[in-house]
Write a structure and sequence with these properties.
It comes from Pseudomonas boreofloridensis. By secondary structure, the protein is an alpha/beta fold. Helices cover about 35% and strands about 20% of the residues.
């Protein structure tokens, strides 16, 4: 059975924040297919929006979400990217939806300032987290219940995982491939992507 990887997208999302994880999980699926006979892909990767209306990432890239937050398949892993998140933080239905995804039987992970959206749910309270170096002080100030770490690429707290700025989301996603399948597949994926994986936070 395929594992469903949903990536939330919104206006002013940072391109590499969502495209990096998308590339990791789809590349991992291709690498897996080369060595394992299976009728279904290892990971089924898709984008999610508040609605199915097109959104525009930073610098204008247009994205047509595959699903909305109200009609998507059950998720095994949700990736919440960052970017300019001010408008998303004010959308109660988005925060409520992210909160609903935070449960022991699935992984919810953030990239960069996506940590602010996870923090707004209250699910990160008391946990170690990280975000883009430029936003560390703001995250600490806005959410004092968090234990915000600096100088790390990602922080794994079990069902909730956060990563630092932009390219760190690729490191984190490779870590998630290792968690969800195997270290060997994560290494093959990084090699295929010609990416120097920071294997430890």
């Amino acid at each position: 059975m395929s594992l469903n990887i949903g990536i939330y997208v919104f206006d002013d999302v940072e391109v590499l924040d969502f495209a990096g994880p998308y590339e990791v999980f789809t590349t991992a699926t291709r690498m897996h297919e080369r060595s394992a006979a299976s009728e279904q892909p290892l990971f089924c990767v898709f984008t999610l929006g508040r609605t199915r209306t097109a959104v525009h990432a930073r610098a204008g890239l247009k994205i047509d979400p595959d699903y909305s937050i109200n009609d998507h398949p059950t998720l095994d892993c949700l990736i919440v990217p960052g970017g300019v998140v001010t408008a998303e933080l004010a959308k109660a239905e988005v925060i409520d939806w992210i909160r609903e995804q935070c449960r022991p039987d699935r992984t919810v992970a953030s990239v960069c300032t996506g940590a602010f959206l996870l923090a707004r749910t209250g699910k990160l309270d008391g946990l170690q987290v990280t975000t883009h170096w430029e936003d560390i002080a703001d995250l600490k100030a806005m959410f004092p219940a968090l234990d915000v770490l600096e100088g790390v690429r990602w922080v794994d707290q079990g069902a909730l995982v956060t990563s630092a700025g932009i390219s760190a989301g690729i490191d984190m996603s490779l870590h998630l491939v290792e968690r969800l399948h195997s270290r060997a597949l994560a290494e093959r994926t990084a090699r295929q992507m010609a990416f120097d994986w920071t294997e430890h936070p």
